[in-house]
Each structure stands twice: as structure tokens, then as C-alpha cells.
Amino acid sequence: MPFLLRLLLWGLAATAPQFAQSLLLGFKAGIPMTQYFDTRSAASLSSSADYSAATRRYTAGVSAEWRSETVLGIEADVLYKRMGYVGIIHTIDSSRGISTTAAFDIKGDSWDFPILLKYRFRRKLHPYASGGGVVRYVGPVQARGEETAQDLVAGTTTRTPIDTADPFDLRKRFYPGVSAGSGVELRRGRLRLLPELRYTRWTANIAKRGGLLRFEPDQWEWLLGVLF
């Protein structure tokens, strides 16, 4: 991740001299209004799968904003979330008489890197609107659990631990999207408080529509920025 963060900051620094007159730094924290994962279950004659997840209700990170002397600016954030899900997959190989159940618990980190063009309205309450692109990186991730194989003919059971940093559901780690938000800026001296409602649409996902494990494609969250 240090390389991606350096690339993000370099791109902003390269464009800043063209229009930016001031640089504000600070942090953001917030509360997701939607689930991180969209999980489902499925079953057939020979297999079944069940995924479930609990959303960690917080977002936290750092923020930077380059401002022009006009109403325009560019905002760049690094936002962190903790994520996790549980999966149980059961299969039956009737030709060999083997029943296999894999139960696993995945936990990991999630990083969002939005770059947003910001427009500040010339009003007393200092409202603003923003929009742009975002990239999500998932990792590092750890999967732990157990796979149980029962030989129904021989009457034996074999248990194999699951312990990997590369679970098959999350082998793709980067996901693009688009974001838009609106809020107001409250000023007190050099301190600026920015409560905001932000929407993100993920244009790529873990699985196709109807898949058992996906990001919630339409993400809403309340954010509070503090800039100096």
C-alpha cells in the first residue's frame, strides 16, 4: 500500500500548482449507512453454500484538500474499514461417497482512495458538492477455518485446517467506483468541520449480480471531516 499512497499524493501534488492556492490537511471519520457485504445462500442436490457478514460500523482515515482562490478544489482521502465474513460450503460427491464441508471465517482490512473534484457554493453556510473516482483495496486478509471430509463408504473422517492469506473469494484486491457527496463547511478560525453525506457506486465487484458474496454496490455513509 505505500506505493499506491505515494502515487496518489504525487498525482495531486503535480496538479496542485496549476490552480491550488492553499492546502488543508486533517482526518475523516464516519458511520456506514449500508452493509459492507451483500451475502446470500444457495443450494442444489449436490452442494450448498451460505455466506453471512456483520458490518463494522465505522470509517476512519486522513484527508487532504487543495483549494483555488475560486470555488473549486480537489479532495483526496485514505479511508479505512475493517471487514469480515463467514462462509460454509458443503458438497457431496455421490460417485465416490464423500461429503465435504468447509467452514471458514475471513477478516481483513479495506482501504478506499477517493479523489474528488469539489465545488463550494458562495453561501453563508458554505455548502459544497463533490464527485469523482475511488479505488478500493482489500488487504491484508486472513482466512481461518476447517475442512471436514467424510468417506460415507469407509466410515472415516478427515479434518484439514484452513489458514491462508489468499482466500479464493478475494483473490482480486482492487475495485474501482465513483463517488459523490454533499455537505456544509463550518468554520472557526483555521479549524473547519465538514459533515457530509457520501454515496459510492462500485463499478466492479467480487462477483456478478446474484453472486453469494459481493460488496453492497450502492454504499452510503455519513462522514465528518476536520481540516486545518
Describe it.
- This protein has one domain (2-227): Porin.
- Helices cover 8% and strands 66% of the residues.
- It has one helix at residues 2-19; strands at 22-32, 37-39, 41-43, 47-52, 59-67, 72-93, 98-120, 127-151, 156-164, 174-184, 186-188, 191-202, 213-215, 218-227.
- Strands 1-5-6-7-8-10-12-14 form an 8-stranded antiparallel β-barrel. A two-stranded antiparallel ribbon has the order 2-13.
- The mean pLDDT is 91.
Would you summarize the structure shown here?
The protein is mostly beta strands and 228 residues long. It has one helix and 14 strands, in the order αββββββββββββββ. The model has no long low-confidence stretch (mean pLDDT 91).
Helix and strand topology:
Layout: H1 2-19, E1 22-32, E2 37-39, E3 41-43, E4 47-52, E5 59-67, E6 72-93, E7 98-120, E8 127-151, E9 156-164, E10 174-184, E11 186-188, E12 191-202, E13 213-215, E14 218-227
Antiparallel strand pairs: 1-5, 1-14, 2-13, 3-4, 4-6, 5-6, 6-7, 7-8, 8-9, 8-10, 10-12, 11-12, 12-14
Sum up the structure in keywords.
two-stranded antiparallel ribbon; eight-stranded antiparallel barrel; mainly beta; Porin; 14 strands; 228 residues; 1 helix
- Unreliable stretches (pLDDT < 50, length at least 5) are none
Strand content: over 45%
Helix percent reads under 10%
User: Taking Cα atoms only, what radius of gyration do you get, to the nearest Å?
Assistant: 22 Å
Task: State the CATH architecture.
Answer: Beta Barrel
Give the overall form: elongated
CATH class: Mainly Beta
